[in-house]
């Protein structure tokens, strides 16, 4: 299929051929009929992409702050790779469309194939021929409403949420500053609600359009006509609400709002304009400044948008989906007229030219639509995606049964190792693929994703031979030697099982499994298939600095005490790591790293786990006990200082101390003291060495880098943490040691 994309680093716009998305449970696959260009938001992104790096930094100081924090936490080289990787990637455009349901995912019963729906979301209603849209981000289009008009649903919801935040009443007088696409819709919605509206915009054509659509008066912000109209309509008191629908760097809109608003009036920010509030003016009138968050309640809440969990109507009357449906109804009944807003309709194939004309000012428009070609009779390939239930974790009792040491034969040294990636997210593209792409003995054969654009980006950046959404075809390809599973946590175990059954060597990012049943299923697959070629991405044991420190520490004779502080920090709002219902707890996803590192340093697998957490936060204390009496305490905290190092470790035994400071410096204190150099070239956490060991094992048919029994024991111990938290007692790990 085709999709409009932009490279934020170079500013390049393109209509790209990408794999079609699959239809996942909880949503529908929609073939686009019309999609709407947001001449405000999207053109701002297009303009920013054309700036120099300094210009980009000045336009997004919030992102610069995140980069500086990442430098402090992860070091300059890793941050540079991550930032440049994101910048030099294709990103999608679009967030408002109308289309036809082509496939219905499991759990959806309110629409059927062939229904017309309006769709929202900057990840799900893109300028693309096909989009997968979750339940709460689409709404059925009323009978008789033209698809080109239904394509306004999302921007209409944005305008509607802004009006709701202003709480207009019958007879109110409202001022709308900025008469672009959102402003024109705000004018109509206010008029439909019984308010009288004054509009402000420097463009006479837009003022005339707003008056035709219901405004009582409009004018240039610098003219006396606007002030006179407000005085006449309000008997000199000032407007009841001001709606800021303007953009740009000028502070004039907020100053004008204070001047024309009545005492204790409301000012609602809908757009993205400068907000240096003149304190005296706002204080003296005690103005109520409000922000309108996009389409309405539910926006940026992954449980609402991605998992389909609606808010009870008795508590939240107007959610983003209800706003979307309400706006469509208003347009269908003629209360809002969007046809006069349509300045231009372009064929989808001409998208790049259309954006360029808008950017250059050649095409002056309020609203521009892309019109998509009708689908051919060729059927689209169906994809099914099973969601594994996530039961309550019980005490894992893992029996790793030997399969007789069956291993795949050594690969011919005459040809490179052919690898396939399932998933191409940030970790894969910043921490794994850069190392693999540099290896002469490796060929990147295929990349499989459920979202088309990530596959296309990975193919372009790392030279994959093909990009696809068809996992079965890749697993059935006899030329593929090994499969990397780098997807979200909930899919790891099932994808690992499928790849093992297909006879592939498997590298799966942690965690291997989220439940004891999933872990048992993977081990049963190893026994069933005779294929034990499995590696989990526990990379820290391969870190050169830690390996050297362990060698310097030497063998020990008595039990050891290990302390591991992980200053994990808080997650950003909206991170999928917060989706514990489907993706497991944060520690279940990440904790295996630290348990594996402790077990490797202590030379054994744990026999019991005790976990506790302070009330009111996510900090964890995990105590592992080992067969020889050694203990490891892992403090996994989210409430620490952001500038403090992420990982610090101390190992004490036999009169010696090993100390690791965030993979930047290490030391061993004993009969002889050893201290590493203070500033290594980079914070190396072992990914490159781990990948080298995996590639070597697959090529030669030799033992995998980490024994399967150890992988299973670490996973079982990680799962036991949640059980220990629930029962408040130590959890014994059953199974062979």
Can you tell me about this structure?
This protein is an alpha/beta fold and 737 residues long. It is 34% helix and 22% strand. It has 24 helices and 31 strands. It has a 9-stranded mixed beta sheet. Strands 3, 5, 6, 7, 8, 15 and 16 form a 7-stranded mixed beta sheet that branches. Strand 28 and strand 29 form a beta hairpin. Helix 22 packs across helix 24. The radius of gyration is 29 Å and the shape is elongated. About 5% of the residues have low confidence.
Helix/strand class = alpha/beta
- How large is the radius of gyration? 29 Å
Bin the strand percentage.
Answer: 15-25%
Number of strands: 31
Largest sheet, described in full? 9 strands, mixed
Termini separation comes to 51 Å
Taking all residues together, what is the mean pLDDT? 88
Number of helices: 24
Oligomer: single chain
The residue fraction in helices comes out at 25-40%
Placed side by side, the strands forming the largest sheet appear as 30-29-28-27-23-26-25-24-31
Shape assignment: elongated
Unreliably modeled segments: 377-410
Record the SSE blueprint.
Elements: E1 2-7, E2 13-17, E3 27-37, H1 41-49, H2 53-59, H3 61-74, H4 76-87, E4 90-92, E5 96-104, E6 116-120, E7 130-134, E8 138-140, H5 147-150, H6 153-166, E9 173-177, H7 181-192, E10 196-200, H8 204-212, E11 217-219, H9 224-234, E12 239-244, H10 252-260, E13 261-269, H11 279-285, E14 288-291, H12 302-305, H13 320-332, E15 342-347, H14 351-360, E16 367-371, E17 417-422, H15 426-437, E18 442-448, H16 452-462, E19 466-468, H17 471-475, E20 482-485, H18 492-501, E21 505-508, H19 516-529, E22 534-536, H20 544-553, E23 561-567, H21 580-583, H22 586-602, E24 608-612, E25 620-625, E26 631-637, E27 647-653, E28 656-661, E29 665-669, E30 674-675, H23 687-700, H24 708-727, E31 731-732
């Amino acid at each position: 299929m085709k999709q409009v994309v932009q490279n934020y680093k170079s500013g390049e716009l393109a209509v790209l051929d990408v794999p079609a998305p699959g239809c996942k449970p909880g949503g529908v696959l929609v073939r686009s009929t019309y999609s709407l260009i947001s001449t405000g938001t999207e053109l701002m992104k297009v303009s920013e992409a054309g700036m120099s790096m300094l210009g980009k930094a000045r336009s997004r100081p919030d992102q610069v702050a995140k980069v500086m924090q990442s430098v402090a936490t992860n070091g300059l080289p890793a941050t540079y790779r991550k930032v440049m990787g994101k910048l030099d990637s294709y990103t999608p455009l679009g967030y408002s469309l109308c289309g036809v349901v082509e496939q219905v995912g499991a759990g959806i019963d309110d629409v059927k194939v062939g229904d017309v729906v309006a769709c929202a979301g900057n990840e799900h209603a893109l300028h693309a021929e096909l989009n997968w849209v979750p339940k709460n981000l689409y709404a059925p289009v009323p009978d008789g409403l033209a698809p080109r008009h239904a394509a306004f649903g999302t921007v209409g919801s944005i305008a509607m949420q802004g009006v709701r935040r202003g709480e207009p009443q019958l007879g109110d007088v409202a001022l709308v500053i900025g008469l672009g696409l959102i402003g024109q819709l705000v004018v109509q919605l206010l008029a439909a609600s019984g308010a009288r509206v004054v509009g402000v915009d420097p463009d006479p054509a837009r003022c005339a359009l707003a008056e035709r659509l219901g405004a009582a008066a409009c004018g240039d912000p610098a003219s006396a006509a606007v002030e006179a109209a407000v005085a006449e309509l309000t008997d000199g008191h000032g407007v009841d609400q001001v709606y800021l629908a303007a953009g740009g760097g000028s502070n004039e809109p907020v100053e004008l709002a204070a001047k024309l608003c009545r005492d204790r009036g409301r000012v609602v920010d809908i757009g993205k304009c400068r907000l240096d509030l003149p304190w005296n003016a706002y204080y003296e009138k005690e103005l109520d400044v409000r922000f309108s968050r996009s389409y309405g309640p539910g926006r940026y809440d992954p449980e609402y948008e991605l998992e389909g969990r609606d808010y009870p109507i008795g508590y939240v009357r107007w959610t983003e989906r209800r706003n979307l449906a309400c706006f469509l109804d208003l347009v269908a009944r003629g209360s809002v007229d969007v046809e006069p807003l349509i300045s231009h309709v372009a064929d989808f194939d001409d998208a790049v030219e259309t954006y360029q004309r808008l950017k250059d000012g050649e095409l002056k428009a309020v609203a521009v639509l892309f019109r998509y070609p009708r689908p051919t009779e060729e059927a689209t390939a169906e994809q099914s995606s099973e969601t594994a239930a996530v039961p309550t974790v019980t005490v894992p009792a893992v029996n790793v049964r030997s399969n007789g040491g069956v291993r795949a034969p050594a690969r011919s040294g005459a040809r490179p190792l052919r690898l396939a990636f399932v998933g191409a997210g940030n970790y894969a593209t910043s921490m794994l693929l850069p190392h693999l792409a540099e290896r002469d003995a490796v060929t990147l054969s295929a990349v499989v994703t459920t979202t088309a654009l990530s596959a296309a980006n990975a193919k372009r950046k790392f030279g994959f031979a093909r990009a696809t959404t068809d996992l079965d075809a890749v697993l059935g390809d006899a030329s593929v030697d090994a499969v990397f599973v780098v997807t979200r946590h909930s899919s790891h175990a099932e994808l690992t099982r499928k790849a093992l059954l297909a006879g592939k060597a498997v590298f799966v990012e942690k965690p291997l499994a989220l439940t004891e049943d999933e872990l048992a299923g993977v081990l049963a697959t190893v026994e069933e298939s005779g294929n034990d070629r499995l590696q989990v991405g526990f990379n820290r044991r391969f870190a050169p600095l830690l390996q050297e420190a362990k060698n310097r520490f030497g063998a020990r004779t008595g039990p050891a005490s290990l302390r591991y502080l992980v200053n994990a920090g808080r997650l950003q709002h909206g991170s999928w790591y917060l989706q514990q219902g489907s993706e497991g707890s944060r520690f279940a996803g990440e904790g295996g790293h630290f348990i594996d590192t402790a077990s490797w340093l202590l030379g054994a697998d744990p026999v019991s786990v005790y976990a506790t957490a302070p009330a009111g936060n996510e900090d964890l204390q995990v105590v592992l006990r080992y067969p020889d009496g050694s203990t490891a305490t892992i403090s996994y905290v989210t409430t620490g200082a952001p500038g403090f190092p992420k990982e610090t470790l101390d190992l004490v035994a036999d009169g010696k101390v090993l100390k690791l400071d965030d993979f930047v410096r290490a030391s061993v204190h004993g009969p002889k003291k050893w201290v590493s150099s203070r500033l290594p070239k980079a914070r190396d956490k072992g990914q490159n060495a781990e990948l080298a060991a995996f590639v070597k094992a697959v090529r030669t048919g030799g033992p995998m880098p980490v024994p399967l029994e150890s992988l299973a024991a670490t996973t079982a111990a990680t799962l036991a943490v949640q059980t220990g938290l629930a029962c408040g007692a130590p959890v014994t790990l059953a199974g062979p040691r």
